[in-house]
Amino acid sequence: MIFSILKRLPVSRPGKEFIKDLLFGAFPFLLSHLSAYGYWKAARIFMPEIQPLINKTPLRPAPEPAEPVRKLAVICHAYYPEVLGAILDHLGSFPAEIISLYISAPEEKTEEIKSLLAGYPFPYEIRTVENRGRDILPFLEVLKDLWAANPDLILKIHTKKTNRRRKGSEWSDSLYNNLLDAESVNRALAVFSECPGLGMMAPAGHIIPMRFYYGSNAARVKHLGERMGATLQEMQHLDFAAGSMFYARPQAFEPLLQLQLERSDFESETGQEDGTTAHAVERLLALSTAVAGYTLADTKCSVENPTYSLVKDYRFSW
User: Span 72-298: which CATH code?
Assistant: First the structure.
């Protein structure tokens, strides 16, 4: 009931979180039986007394230039093959000689995917996976197998379809356009080539603060984050890439891979909207980047200022 009312209030996400703090903080004796109260209480670890409005740290000048990007591994989970064609068209913006494409999909989708790939100029590999862990578990499995190949850069993307909470196709279009248009492609290759301390570049307008979008994931994020070696302070100021699409150096995810998460750690697919291991790991990708010693940027950054703008009121969430 409380969340139904909050969803309809014409206030920003920070405003809604403020209202939740007031209600749950003032009336725990009335509301503590609600699951929403339990999620709120668990997430208090992400709410220090003083919060920076924007948490972004420009990179310090690198002592030596990075190497040019010569090998780009595109890791794409294609649960919806009908969306894959549009992604493949976008990949035409990349120099074909640097791309290797790795596609994961359930077995019943692979024949359609093969037909879509006919005639494309870059090498590809199709991996058959169980429908478990959304796009996150297949990504981790492919990344582990790619480790020895040591690509300079990876592009994680997946076939996204909207649901009842999203605004038509705006969400997926915004992610793809901010990540895969020719300008963003050229910028990503240039910035990663010149900034060796940069670990992840996410679509502009889609980097959001964990403290406003923890959902029912707080306890699991804390547990896994501590296992990666993150401090509570780092987790309190965690920002992450909503939609889990980005460019990154594979080394940025070494702390996450060292958790050695197995398929059994991920729930079977039942249409969950939040609170799964996949949702928690989506939030931990940026934290792994920080623990590994790298920084975060968005696709509107520059070589001179490789940083990001934080969106506190994310229009693709309730």
Answer: 3.90.550
